[in-house]
């Protein structure tokens, strides 16, 4: 059970709730803050005090006063009019994360919602009723208005939801689970949709998957080094300590650990003096991507516990401030940074694939073919990898440098953070398939070299991966192999359990 406070949610807890279906509950102190914040909104309404979003219109309509009798209708109209997202829905995993993160933000007690709103969001999570949220339509400032409106719509008993593996009208699921729709009151509609939770939820899922890919890229690269009889000297700790980047040092250490005991690696000058950059510079390139992932993690850890509503209510309602915490720029830049960092795992991987299949660059059978000439082997797999890498270059173009004014120029600078997060997700899917292709080629290369000569760690990975993709003894439709390996990578972690990583860290400190 994960207890939500509004302030202490971790990425690990998000993973538990979203991937493992962990139940959630609300801390009593957080619920008390919610109640106190709601009393402040009710006083504002009773005293007819003018406050944005409570008794005024929205955006360009912020100067339009709303009669007390129409305050509730204002909130209901807001949700229905703003629920205009388009395109394919976010993955259900992301939808679940959106609920979790929006709930956590509301529990900070600055938003003025009634407890029933928070309780309903808990109910949706624990019953695994997840809103169908179209991916396209958010500018990432004034928050993720369109996506979050599709979440809010579900509270009204409207829209559609994922439930029991299918998509249903919310009304049907509510009837089945005996849930009553909620009629929103003052401030609640705005509180539900003014936030960065769509881009942040997508960002958290991105980061969790990207970290797994980063670790997978290392054991796959280690097998490639063995398949190409790579030079281990390039991973000597002195080289990496001389530069000083902790992430680079750590990648080199993990590669050395993976290759410890291998009879397929070589020493400097034994077969050649230097390897190509795609082998020799793995710690430098992968390490730089790890630096970016560390930066992204820092921003996500802040954002998942941030108040991103507008206006925010302080001092028991004595201070109500309209600001811009809904602006997604911090996450937009982080997602753009992530796109570049993750794309590089595929970029250097594709170059390693080329070295595995190109007979001019190695002493292996051409294209790892069982019968070169008669059979093409892995030739076109490299084409596929090159295509995905090229597509990533387009997707990696930063979304955050763009801005189109909205709401009659009242909202004149926006982040496009949700676009950045969506494109990062697409890049991650492409990278995984490139790594799957490298893995298939590396498996074949070490098989030609002699599996019995592999390091114990890489041999363990080899044996597991061979259960997914069999040896290439003749040409076949390799698309299925790529997808099977992709699915294997997606369903598993980085190939290192938490205990493995702890043992590594302990070993590094001992050394």
Automatic annotation (TrEMBL):
GO molecular function terms listed in the Swiss-Prot or TrEMBL record: histidine ammonia-lyase activity
CDD domains listed in its UniProt record: PAL-HAL (cd00332)
Entries under InterPro entries matching the protein: Aromatic_Lyase (IPR001106), Fumarase/histidase_N (IPR024083), HutH (IPR005921), L-Aspartase-like (IPR008948), Phe/His_NH3-lyase_AS (IPR022313)
Major location category of this protein: cytoplasm
Record keyword Isomerase present: no
UniProt EC number: 4.3.1.3
Modification(s) after translation: Contains an active site 4-methylidene-imidazol-5-one (MIO), which is formed autocatalytically by cyclization and dehydration of residues Ala-Ser-Gly.
Alphabetized UniProt keyword annotations: Cytoplasm, Histidine metabolism, Lyase
Catalysed conversion reaction: L-histidine = trans-urocanate + NH4(+)
Localization, UniProt: Cytoplasm
Position(s), cross-link 5-imidazolinone (Ala-Gly): 141-143
Top-level taxonomic group: Bacteria
UniProt pathway annotation: Amino-acid degradation; L-histidine degradation into L-glutamate; N-formimidoyl-L-glutamate from L-histidine: step 1/3
Modified residues (2,3-didehydroalanine (Ser)): 142
Family affiliation: Belongs to the PAL/histidase family.
Descriptive protein name: Histidine ammonia-lyase
Gene for this chain: hutH
